[in-house]
């Protein structure tokens, strides 16, 4: 079992430590004691709860796609020169930055405050784990 401390579980869920403790009391999550005596929750159980409680905004593109990693958010910044642009989106708690042609920025009407979807093809995603 991967043990996740209450404070870390709260950060993953975007709630307070007290909320996680309340969910434990209500039976929404179960807890155990770590070898060091800290209250912990099972990582797999936490992952299931996180997925169940996630709220995804509707994708305005409404297109069929093979890409499964779609992040709907707001454009927060566009930095352009004559050829290339850097576009930054805030998708929930995630900051996504894309480099694209300035022509594409104009064609898509990308500007701060605009709703947009960042699409990430899974073959280009790096996955890391803490200090293994």
From TrEMBL:
Pfam family, one: TOBE
Keywords associated with the record: Molybdenum
Keyword Transcription among record annotations: no
Chain ranges of the Mop domain: 64-129
Gene3D superfamilies per the UniProt record, alphabetical: 1.10.1660.10, 2.40.50.100
NCBIfam families from the UniProt entry: excise (TIGR01764)
Protein name as catalogued: Molybdopterin-binding protein
